[in-house]
């Protein structure tokens, strides 16, 4: 069994989780503080979680493909995203971001607002309130969202194979390697990759459960 799909999967999951971590916190904070259009914003951000991954991949092709405005703009700098490792990262970000966003937003909304109000009456800036009050008191929710996003990135398949393809040593992840193995009737190899994914997912879900106990 070649190790390349494992390496590509871990690289993709780590890169996408780093992006999702900051994007999810930012979006959760902004949406939680909205007074208007909160429902619309929440629905748009959450939409990739309920859509079939192949639909997400299709729209990523339309959005970043060579015929799109963004695709044409990037081609001017000799940059192409479709069927590249960057596309695999973008796919993982889009499908895992809703998990990070919703978990973090839930943590923000459960925070006792009286703490924030008290800080404001003392003249503490919004920036300091965010860094010194909100983040420390919601750290377990943020960590839980991060673990869920990372685990989701590990198993991403539909959007990845549509947008990034299944190119060995480039975009072939463990999920797409399973697909290729089944297509080639190599069920032993497919089983090995499936077990590897299960083990990784179990480890990180156990980590999530341990963090929940720490927060109690």
Topology overview:
Blueprint: H1 4-32, H2 38-50, H3 53-64, H4 69-75, H5 85-110, H6 113-121, H7 126-137, H8 139-154, H9 158-163, H10 174-183, H11 187-215
Question: What would you say this structure looks like, in words?
Answer:
There is one protein chain. The chain has 216 residues and is mostly helical. The protein is built from 11 helices and no strands. The chain has a single domain, classed as Orthogonal Bundle (MetI-like fold), CATH 1.10.3720.10. The model has no long low-confidence stretch (mean pLDDT 90).
Summarize the structure.
The chain has 216 residues and is mainly alpha-helical. The chain has helices spanning 4-32, 38-50, 53-64, 69-75, 85-110, 113-121, 126-137, 139-154, 158-163, 174-183, 187-215.
Helix content: over 70%
Q: Which fold name is given in CATH as the topology?
A: MetI-like fold
The overall average pLDDT, rounded, is 90
The CATH class is Mainly Alpha
Strand percentage: under 5%
Spell out the helices and strands N to C: HHHHHHHHHHH
Q: Tell me, what's the shape? A: globular
CATH homologous superfamily? MetI-like
* CATH architecture term: Orthogonal Bundle
Salient structural properties:
single chain, 216 residues, mainly alpha, MetI-like fold, 11 helices, 78% helix, 0% strand, globular
